[in-house]
Amino acid sequence: MIKRILLIAVLIVGMSAAAMAQSLYVGSGVVLAPSEPDFKQDSLLAPMVGYDFPQLWRISFMTTDSKNTTTHPETKMTESVIGVQRLFVYPMNQAFSLIGALGAGWYMVNLSGSGSGSGSGLGLMADGSLRWSFSKNLFADATFQFRDSGVQISSTGRDFTVDGGWTGVAAAIGWVF
User: Fold this and answer.
1) Nearest C-alpha neighbor of 81 from the set 35, 117, 42
2) Would the pTM count as exceeding 0.90?
3) Which residues contact 26 (CB under 8 A, 6 or more apart)?
């Protein structure tokens, strides 16, 4: 948990120092359905941080914990993704915008408990967001997320593939620089 907090802090500091700054957001997501069928979200909060370059590109990070609810209840899966997406922004009026995002992410999956191991791989990221601008600088996003990647896990005794990713919703607040 401390590693995640430190990683998010480093990302926030690094992204806020970038000269081309447009908007930085932080938030949390709720995973509706992990891609691996026997798993459910374990922790209530799935921290996320992102940075939108002037309405063209997004860099983001999100992590979530899931646990096996059927065959091996002791097995936990931590999935993290760092991604780059192309943004498609449609301003509806001064306060609301629809945002679509499509791109690729680098997925890191760790299993602990029965069948422990880790792996990483490239995968798909797609988002649909409704952005509400409270002021010139402050905004909130409600986002539907789709993440998918087949990740090869190397573990003691055997190698296997898990579906790294999830379908879920996220809420975030952000600041436009």
Assistant:
1) 35
2) no
3) 8, 12, 47, 48, 49, 172, 173, 174
